[in-house]
């Protein structure tokens, strides 16, 4: 059986707003012609610090002002979840997918993203990563989260996705309660492996995990498309 083809778009290190703009173009493309293609996998490393909030909010106006005073952007998004941080040293993966050609539902899409991150950690030599039962999302080492997940789905088309800490400066997370989870912490591949792990290093293994998990092929597309 022929596997669905997903377009791979690697943006390198870019402002977070550039990722959001490309996401919107792909959303319009898939929603204009539903069922004609599986979609795109958008990957980037944020060029600067950004705090984002989901549909459930998570920041007061005073907190927003305090975070902006640190030199970070603060952006409300239409994804699930609460507040989290994105910045240099983090792999952002936004699969803009029509779930129907892939034979997926929203819950299985979220589980597949978790499985991708777990598999990547295994390929990097970290077999202890795991997903946790609902209502938790993401991937964890013990009580510390290494990968946050927040998605949106409308008319069977997904947006947003996961943020995997590779060599992220974890002190940025100290200014919020990440994802609204009290009593838990964050970690990174660099922290767990005790060496500097770049986003560029993990991308080939992440793509391997994505193809395995989603049972698809990946074809390259220029980021300007």
Automatic annotation (TrEMBL):
Main location: mitochondrion
PROSITE patterns: BPL_LPL_CATALYTIC (PS51733)
Reactions performed catalytically: octanoyl-[ACP] + L-lysyl-[protein] = N(6)-octanoyl-L-lysyl-[protein] + holo-[ACP] + H(+)
Biological pathway: Protein modification; protein lipoylation via endogenous pathway; protein N(6)-(lipoyl)lysine from octanoyl-[acyl-carrier-protein]: step 1/2
Location of this chain's protein in the cell: Mitochondrion
InterPro entries to which the protein is assigned, alphabetical: aa-tRNA-synth_II/BPL/LPL, BPL_LPL_catalytic, Octanoyltransferase
Matches recorded under SUPFAM superfamilies: Class II aaRS and biotin synthetases
Residues binding substrate, per UniProt: 79-86, 148-150, 161-163
Keyword Cell wall biogenesis/degradation: no
GO molecular function: lipoyl(octanoyl) transferase activity
Protein origin, superkingdom: Eukaryota
GO biological process, one term: positive regulation of oxygen metabolic process
BPL/LPL catalytic domain: residues covered: 35-218
CDD domains attached to this UniProt entry: LipB
Family under the similarity heading: Belongs to the LipB family.
Function: Catalyzes the transfer of endogenously produced octanoic acid from octanoyl-acyl-carrier-protein onto the lipoyl domains of lipoate-dependent enzymes. Lipoyl-ACP can also act as a substrate although octanoyl-ACP is likely to be the physiological substrate.
Protein name stated in the entry: Octanoyl-[acyl-carrier-protein]:protein N-octanoyltransferase LIPT2, mitochondrial
Species: Capra hircus
Upper lineage: Eukaryota, Metazoa, Chordata, Craniata, Vertebrata
């Amino acid at each position: 059986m022929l596997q669905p083809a997903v377009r791979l778009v690697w943006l390198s290190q870019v402002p977070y707003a550039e990722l959001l703009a490309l996401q919107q173009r792909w959303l319009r493309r898939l929603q204009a012609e539903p069922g004609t293609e599986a979609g795109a996998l958008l990957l980037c490393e944020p060029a600067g610090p950004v705090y984002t909030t989901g549909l459930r909010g998570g920041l007061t106006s005073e907190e927003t002002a305090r975070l902006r005073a640190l030199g970070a952007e603060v952006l409300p998004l239409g994804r699930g979840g609460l507040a989290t941080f994105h910045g240099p040293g983090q792999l952002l993966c936004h699969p803009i997918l029509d779930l129907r050609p892939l034979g997926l539902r929203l819950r299985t899409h979220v589980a597949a993203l978790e499985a991708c991150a777990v598999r990547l950690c295994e390929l990097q030599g970290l077999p202890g990563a795991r997903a946790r039962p609902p209502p938790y999302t993401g991937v964890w080492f013990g009580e510390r989260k290494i990968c946050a997940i927040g998605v949106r789905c409308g008319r069977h088309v997904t947006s947003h996705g996961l943020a995997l800490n590779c060599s992220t400066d974890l002190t940025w997370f100290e200014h919020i309660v990440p994802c609204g989870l009290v009593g838990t912490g964050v970690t990174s591949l660099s922290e767990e492996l005790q060496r500097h792990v770049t986003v560029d290093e993990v991308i080939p293994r992440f793509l391997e995990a994505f193809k395995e998990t989603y049972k698809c092929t990946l074809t390259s597309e220029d980021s300007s498309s």
